[in-house]
Design a protein that fits this description.
Elements: H1 3-57, H2 61-88, H3 94-125, H4 129-159
């Protein structure tokens, strides 16, 4: 084989490796940039949910429902971004994949809690307090389960701080 052909093969291999490295790094960078927006959405959703609970406890059912709807919107937005990252990033490492799956599970529990809490609000509005309380307790149970996954997520970050910058 001539040295000219060897040089061309070397250059092609070098280009392929360089492209792969850039692709892997850019995919991880995009994920890290999106994670701040996802985190902000979850934090705002949590805040809106807690405000909804306070409003309903004060018998402000309409405002409570508005805040519950807002919480659901924030959680859904974060979930959508996570699903996009998961579906478009085939090159993410096992820890990032576990993190994404954990956050998706956490958000799904929070969304279930929001739906149950909205059912509770509707019951409270028509004075069906026993049924409303049952929905509220179920919503609380969903939030407790979500908190367990949030703790797992926090532990993943703590144990792998070099991957989450």
């Amino acid at each position: 084989m001539s040295s000219y052909i060897k040089l061309i093969i070397f250059i092609v291999v070098l280009l392929i490796v360089s492209t792969a490295i850039v692709f892997v790094e850019s995919s991880t960078d995009n994920m890290n940039k999106s994670m701040q927006a996802i985190s902000d959405g979850i934090v705002q959703g949590d805040s809106d949910y807690n405000e909804a609970v306070d409003l309903v406890n004060s018998k402000s059912f309409y405002d409570g429902m508005e805040k519950a709807n807002s919480a659901g919107e924030h959680f859904n937005s974060s979930l959508k971004m996570l699903n996009e990252i998961r579906d478009s990033s085939s090159d993410i490492n096992a820890v990032h994949k576990q993190y994404i799956d954990t956050v998706i599970t956490e958000i799904n529990f929070k969304l279930q809690a929001v739906d149950l809490f909205k059912e509770a609000i509707e019951c409270f509005e028509i004075q069906s307090n026993y049924t409303g309380s049952n929905y509220a307790y179920q919503a609380n149970d969903m939030m407790i389960q979500a908190k367990e996954f949030q703790n797992q997520r926090d532990m993943l970050v703590q144990n792998n701080s070099d991957l989450f910058k």
